[in-house]
Amino acid sequence: MSGDQQLKLKFAVHAYAWTSSWSNDELHLIDHAKELGLDAIEIPLMEPELVDPRAIKERLESVGLGVCTSVALSEAADPSSEDPEIRRNGLEFLKRCIRLTAEMGGSVFTGVTYSAIGRRIRRRPNEDDWRRSAEVLKEAARYAQSMGVTLGIEPINRYETFLINTAEQGIKLMRMIDEPNVGIHLDAYHMNIEETDFYEATKMAVPYLVHYHLSESHRGIPGRGRVDWDGIFRALGEAQYDGLVGLESFAEISEAMLPATCIWRDLAPSSDELVVEGLKFLKQTAAKYY
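Structure (tokenized):
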């Protein structure tokens, strides 16, 4: 099958393609994402005080675009922390993000929701780390369910978290949380580091999948790196997955984002070229399996 009209997937773009933060100054990106052929936009919630959900919802509805949200937690709001006050901060921060998601009309809130990004420890994670994270996320998930929101768990690479690096680990945490509105969010960039097989990892996670970051191995334009895109879309197509997939790549990096992304050079001539060329490649590849 071929042609955009036959694809069941909902293609999103992360706002990080153009900006490192979100406020009302970025509302025009909603219109721009629609113009470029996207089905949804992913809005970061690391600075929730800047986010105006009513303005976002109005803009989304005016152009007919969907939305999801994501986060990477700081050490002051780490659900896996040994400090109960920090865990409480983490729960309240997650609840705030869930509220914002619901208020802007979204139904998926995801990302590194289980531990602080970049936190280093001098030992292997133990069952207490897992238990603490699962307990906080269980409360967050129950709150999210009351708001009509699904909570995602995104495994990321070993250099950015000590806790959840693989799809298998993400599923383990999901089962510990044991709430019906919790799922898995894969990211091909991180999988390129941690997984041995893109097809098998995707196949394992797809029954629980709520989002998939279609990021290249270098985080530039998809199709120009080492990710096994055929393996990914074969697994998605076999399952007839019809949910969110998202272009998360970076072309214009602010100084604030440099330490988090470790991107020190231009990965594409421009943000728009990254999105347009990446989306074209991803849709063409997906069409072979749908």
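The longest helix spans residues 84-103. Residues 4-287 form a domain with the TIM Barrel fold (CATH 3.20.20.150).
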